[in-house]
Amino acid sequence: MGKVAAMLTLASKLKRDDGLRGSRTAASAADSTRRVSVRDKLLVKEVAELEANLPCTCKVHFPDPNKLHCFQLTVTPDEGYYQGGKFQFETEVPDAYNMVPPRVRCLTRMWHPNITETGEICLSLLREHSIDGTGWAPTRTLKAPVQNHRRAQTVGFRAASSANTGSLLVFVQQ
């Protein structure tokens, strides 16, 4: 099933569930499991917007089209230090989204100041609380982390939030 079909399926489910919610007379445990979360409602809109504005160097893949909260982003930079590379990032959007940031991990092993050897990404944007004031805010959308991944691959890194000091030293010396 294509991405658009998956989004339409989820959008249809949201509408159907809203209709059911209005006609219910008694709540039961089974009904509560069919409710659509705020996260999923936001994701239907944000994923459509993300895919419509994705640069040609980025591709989004949903391993399970019914779970918009788990997806992979592939970045293939066409300029900069990582030009010609292909880097995969895994994004998981928690239930408390958009009050908390998505969890992002780099699946491709790489030498980058803001990515640890285990794939953890050190960016203020992905922190719920940040000392520099640029952390996650409920007004941000999924576009923000995607734009940051792309920028980090083409422009460079943020020394203030370096997770891999060995690679930071190499970048600074060049």
Automatic annotation (TrEMBL):
Gene3D superfamilies cross-referenced by the UniProt entry: Ubiquitin Conjugating Enzyme (3.10.110.10)
Pfam families attached to this UniProt entry: UQ_con
Keywords tagged on the record: ATP-binding, Nucleotide-binding, Transferase, Ubl conjugation pathway
EC number: 2.3.2.34
Pathway named in the protein's UniProt entry: Protein modification; protein neddylation
A GO molecular function held by the record: NEDD8 conjugating enzyme activity
GO biological process, one term: protein neddylation
InterPro entries, sorted: Ub_conjugating_enzyme (IPR050113), UBC (IPR000608), UBQ-conjugating_AS (IPR023313), UBQ-conjugating_enzyme/RWD (IPR016135)
CDD domains per the UniProt record, alphabetical: UBCc_UBE2F_UBE2M
Domain UBC core positions: 38-174
Active site: C122
Reaction equation(s) it catalyzes: [E1 NEDD8-activating enzyme]-S-[NEDD8 protein]-yl-L-cysteine + [E2 NEDD8-conjugating enzyme]-L-cysteine = [E1 NEDD8-activating enzyme]-L-cysteine + [E2 NEDD8-conjugating enzyme]-S-[NEDD8-protein]-yl-L-cysteine
Keyword Nucleotide-binding assigned: yes
Family, similarity comment: Belongs to the ubiquitin-conjugating enzyme family.
Assembly description: Interacts with UBA3 and RBX2. Interacts (N-terminally acetylated form) with (via DCUN1 domain) DCUN1D1, DCUN1D2, DCUN1D3, DCUN1D4 and DCUN1D5.
Protein's job: Accepts the ubiquitin-like protein NEDD8 from the UBA3-NAE1 E1 complex and catalyzes its covalent attachment to other proteins. Together with the E3 ubiquitin ligase RNF7/RBX2, specifically neddylates cullin-5 (CUL5). Does not neddylate CUL1, CUL2, CUL3, CUL4A or CUL4B. Mediates neddylation of the CUL9-RBX1 complex.
Designated name of the protein: E2 NEDD8-conjugating enzyme
Gene source species: Oryctolagus cuniculus
Lineage: Eukaryota, Metazoa, Chordata, Craniata, Vertebrata
